[in-house]
Amino acid sequence: MNTQEYFSIAFYNVENLFDAEHTDFTLDEDFTPEGKLEWNSERYQLKLDRIAKVIAGIGAEEGANPPVFMGLAEVENDKVLLDLINQKELSEYNYDFVHYESPDERGVDVAFLYRKDFFELIYTDVYPLMIYDQGQARDYTRDILLICGNLFGEKIYVIVNHWPSRSNGKSFTENKRMSGAKKVKEIINQIYNETNDAAILVIGDFNDSPKNQSIKQMVIQNNLINPMLEMQKKGLGSLIHLGKWHLFDQIMFTKNVLNREKYTYEFAQIFNPEFLIEKNGRSKGGPLRTYHGSRYIGGYSDHFPVYAVFKKK
Predict the structure, then answer these.
(1) DSSP per-residue codes, the chain
(2) Is residue 135 scored above 60 in pLDDT?
């Protein structure tokens, strides 16, 4: 493929991209030199190097790298994002980022990276996800990020998500992800009030796969296309847990994203080259992660990135 003909967009849960300093009012003590994970500046720098290598390689096989924009999950703050885009692998690509601090108890947020040569930022906003546990205490989680910008001169909206996890069981926490789907619907309705023919991308780590109720509902209610559904039917996934593949990381979009004035959609893919794959142990074949429990592995992330390729007209 000709590099000038194709470009990519992506999403990547980078698994706990923390600096090595404690931040007040967040549960990040484990990610300090004194914490149980013995996180330090050397491990942090290796993590940055490795995440930068992944981002720079996304779409390379198609001549579409690195992404013109992408969503990230599990980033701690502006510092880690600034350090990331200044890594050797990425510094030449003129990346900038959008990030808001969210009320997540662990101190991790979503963010948006974009190459300023191709994507012009118009405005950004964040939407808190108001969810509650069974005792009606608020469960503080990641905000949903809205980006509005011009991609090659055409307006597009990107909604970046990291929905609540399944840490207490899929069924027990399903209502929280249903709340995420409801909030995305509200955001999309707001966008349509602004632009009735808006081109919209919904990307993120949803902690649910395409066949789960929250995703199916969101796709139907908003008339979205979800190319990840066919991947799940083939048994593919972006992460592995207890030997089972899940496809929590997804890229969805409105139908008018398929064929724009300046570009057309080609396909979506999971980015899982050999260097990202665990070669041994019970997670063999899955993403090569930074930690197994509290044991330091020095890998990349417990998720594979996902990306979509477009062809310029």
Answers:
(1) --TTTEEEEEEEEEEEE--SS--TTSS-GGGSTTSTT---HHHHHHHHHHHHHHHHHTTGGGT--S-SEEEEEEE--HHHHHHHHTSTTTGGG-EEEEE-----TT--EEEEEEETTTEEEEEEEEE----B-TTS-B---PPEEEEEEEETTEEEEEEEEE----TT-HHHHHHHHHHHHHHHHHHHHHHHHH-TT--EEEEEE-SS-TTSHHHHHHHHHHTEE-THHHHHHTT--SEEETTEEE--EEEEEEGGGSB-SSEEEEEEEE---GGGB--SSTTTTSB--SEETTEE---S-SS--EEEEEEE-
(2) yes
